[in-house]
Design goal:
This protein is α+β, with helices and mostly antiparallel strands. The chain is built from 14 helices and 19 strands. The chain has a ten-stranded mixed β-sheet with strand order 7-8-9-1-10-17-11-16-14-15, sandwiched between helices.
Length: 599
Amino acid sequence: MKRFNNKGYLVVATFVLVAFLIAACAPAAAPPPAAQAPAAQATAAPAEPTAAPAAPTAAPAEPTAPPAAASGGTVNIAFYQEPNTLVSYYSNQTFAFWAELIYNRGFWTFDDKSAPSLELASEYPTVENGGISADGLTITYKLKPDLKWSDGEPLTSKDVVFTWEAIMNDKNTGVTSRDGYDKIESVTAPDDTTVVVKFKELYVPWPGLFNGPNTGFGFLPQHVLGDKETLDGDDFLRAPIGAGPFKVTEWKGGDHITFVPNENYWRGLPKLEGVNIKVVPSRDAGNAGLAAGDVDLVADEIEASIPDLDALMPAAHAQSVPSQSFEHYFFNLDDGTNGAPGNPIFRDVNVRKAYIMCIDRQTIADKLLFGKSKVISNLWPNSTYDNTDLVPYPYDPAAANKLLDDAGFKVGDDGIRTMDVDGKTVRFSFNHETTTGNQLRADVQVLATSTLRECGFEMLPQNYPSGTLFGSYAQSGPLATGKYETGGYTTSFSPDPDPGDTFKCDGIPTADAPNGNNWYRLCDPELSKLTEDQAKEADPAKRTAMIKEMQKIMYDKAYNAPLYNRLNTIGVSSRLQGISQSPTQTDAYWNIYDWFVTQ
């Protein structure tokens, strides 16, 4: 699962948070309900986080009184994707984001209603409380007093300034995306609890900055990292300190990551005595541990596992919430302009449309996902941004073959079609890359490989561990560097519908600008401009129309192959209590301070 730099139903409150625009005409209400739904991320991470945008109606949730002391119990969480770092600014993995939620916090997180739940901020910025300027270009945050890092040192507004400077530091080549942060003109600290962020232009998705799930998460300690020229390769990326409920004590690669309570967390000690992430080879291995009582929670379950998990009751069960996550296949559309050309056959729209029409997505949803998901036409499913005028391309090999025949792409003696490119014959043969340890993805690959063959396509699975597949450009990740032909994973554009630089021409990562998230390597000027413009549009109806137009462009030109919508699903031991899943990519981990065990 890829964390969108990025998975919803909760159609209430979209985290677009248009408060600062609405306030120009009327007194600002308290903070908004969060945005849509989630994202992500149902299963995926990947990493591998819906209703129409609404004006603020209620203040972000405040926690109940902190427990005086940990009430006991250690939980084991099974991750079948090992994080490649514990600092989400340096990762595209949802699993890395989930791990960071255990030990770190930002101004707020997103709760079970997709609403902002205050963490290090003492209040949510509004026009009424002075947190949002009349023109919407200046956001003033107030930190809680006497905050501390897990090592006991003070956490102040200077750490927020340092975090932004680190994200924007060109020497930190491992930062996966600067989108949104590059819209900021300055971040200043008038005093230890005040942070003033001035934007160069209106930026509607500002609530996600520093708060995840799609833009990186939390703050970096200046007293630890301030003298370092670069954070690339630093030990801190694997042994960080934070300001969350727990602190990291050990990471044994391929085996486990251990967390103990943070006595300096602002709420007080969490209820658990410890958390262990157990790195397992697959989701099935995690479920076997759950059945044996060795695991308390299995992350990123799939819909097909729900019946088997519920069969474990009363010892364990499945827990799900709807999300806006989507699984999709896609193409490397670089024509060579950006240095990592994909397979030239996919530059032809007829080939892309035929590819989609030759994947039996309905059978995937009905059989492999037990009918608990649906085939989708776009990348904003289960939200008010979903362009329902777009009907998913049908599974129709006959029509696809006719489309390819009419375009002149002949079938060779081996059953594989060919195309002439610059005087050379190119076969319709290509690799397809996704994550290992995910049986559903393997099964989908098998089915897609078989049905694509009926149309003269030869798809060759070539899968990698999550940390490799989702590696940054600096880490030579195959998707980030464009060293692939087709791929697949789950992600989502939520709680805010902004896709960041995913479809922007200048979001294509290159050696000179490695921090972009446009792994599709797609440059469509009209789509790129709409992506840029919707993030500056404060009118919810106009912004929704722009996002729906983006979907139509991608649909008409078949720029990707949306497969199905996801649930956020986990497998949970019945002894583990207090979990409240978010439909966003924060999933179950946003309130880990309230988890406890009953035996």
